[in-house]
Amino acid sequence: MLSKVENGNAFPSLTTLHALSRVFRVPMTFFFETHQETQGCCYVKKDGGLFIESRGSKVGHQYQLLGHGVGKELSVSPYMIELNDTSEVFPLFQHPGVEFIHMLGGEMVYEHGGKPHRLSPGDSLFFEGTTAHGPVELIELPIRFLSIIVEPGPKDGS
């Protein structure tokens, strides 16, 4: 039956579509979407990201939000973070979801779950955000790194 539906030789009832949506774990509307639908896109020109005040801003950390996407299941926030000679190390923090860090310049020791990682340009770190983490030693300034935080989306689907 599924092959007939895929090839346009049979037309499923709503009951069949509902059963298929449960099996494939997709909303029923999935079967009515076109492949040409435009998905969300966020374009930010160089130096055009939104500068965010965050807990680290109080100790000289600069957070530049490079885009933001909130879906039904995920919230994605990419940041360019810069630490300079006015920056300080501050207490470790936690957040839901996962985080990916990619070093662009400078050098630092970044701790996750009590384990230090010495990061230099080109190094990456991917970790659970619920475990305490953060920079614990600023070795070579200025430090620039890309941080992408992926968290569960809103519970109400908005």
Explain how this protein is built.
The protein folds into 2 domains: 2-32, no CATH class; 50-152, Sandwich (Jelly Rolls). It has 2 helices and 8 strands. With 158 residues, the chain is mostly beta strands. Keywords: DNA-binding. GO terms for molecular function: DNA binding; DNA-binding transcription factor activity. InterPro entries: Cro/C1-type_HTH, Cupin_2, Lambda_DNA-bd_dom_sf, RmlC-like_jellyroll, RmlC_Cupin_sf, TransReg_Diox_bact_type. This is HTH cro/C1-type domain-containing protein.
Helix run count: 2
CATH homologous superfamily designation of the largest domain: Jelly Rolls
Strand content: 35-45%
Ends distance: 36 Å
Low-confidence blocks of residues: none
Number of domains: 2
The CATH topology of the largest domain, please? Answer: Jelly Rolls
What overall form do the CA principal axes indicate?
elongated
Q: Could you say what the CATH architecture of the largest domain is?
A: Sandwich
**CA gyration radius, whole angstroms:** 22 Å
Q: Helix- and strand-based class? A: mainly beta
Portion in helices: 10-25%
CATH class assignment of the largest domain = Mainly Beta
Protein name: HTH cro/C1-type domain-containing protein
GO molecular function: DNA binding; DNA-binding transcription factor activity
Pfam families: Cupin_2 (PF07883)
Domain HTH cro/C1-type: 1-31
